[in-house]
Specification:
The chain is an alpha+beta fold. The protein contains six helices and seven strands. It has a seven-stranded mixed β-sheet with strand order 1-2-3-4-5-7-6, with helices on both faces.
């Protein structure tokens, strides 16, 4: 097991992890947000130009991915996915702890679908519901439609004194 920085040549494997894991959103997240694939290669390439991906690797295969993006006075946790067959084995927790260790800002924020299982995962790890969700989505995220914002929440965790 190793957590490592993902490189541009990892894009195809990152896409496979994301799109496989995102299948779990079916029936949880409104269908209008679930493209096929969930994240296209072009969309992922755009994301990789602004976020830093890390991967949890076993025997040369990416099992999970998670990304961070410093934005002003906060760091955003982005694109956290673990292959369906490997979930509930501590991989997401390991990646999250790694992201926290790399975060230099006082706050780590994330946006997720309000009705997803991810809310419980992050709450278990000390994240709390953030007030003024719409203001935070506008201030720190790009390209979040009003429709998507209505289905989302923002969670945050203080990592250092503010």
């Amino acid at each position: 097991m190793a957590i490592r920085l993902c490189l541009p040549e990892d894009m195809e494997e990152i896409a496979r992890v994301i799109n496989e894991a995102a299948q779990a959103y079916r029936g949880v997240v409104p269908q209008r947000f679930l493209g096929d694939p969930y994240m296209s290669r072009n969309e992922l390439a755009g994301e990789m130009s602004t976020v830093t991906f890390f991967g949890y690797e076993e025997q040369g295969q990416l099992i999970g991915v998670m990304a961070i993006e410093p934005v002003g006075d906060v760091t955003l946790l982005r694109h956290a996915y673990v292959r369906n067959s490997r979930q509930r084995r501590g991989i997401g927790t390991s990646l999250l702890q790694h992201m926290e260790s790399l975060t230099l800002t006082p706050w780590l924020l994330l946006g997720t679908w309000r009705d997803s299982w991810a809310v419980n995962f992050y709450r278990k790890h000390g994240f709390e519901f953030m007030p003024a969700k719409d203001d935070l989505l506008t201030r720190y995220w790009h390209r979040v439609s009003a429709d998507q914002a209505a289905e989302s929440i923002v969670l945050g965790k203080i990592l250092r004194g503010v």
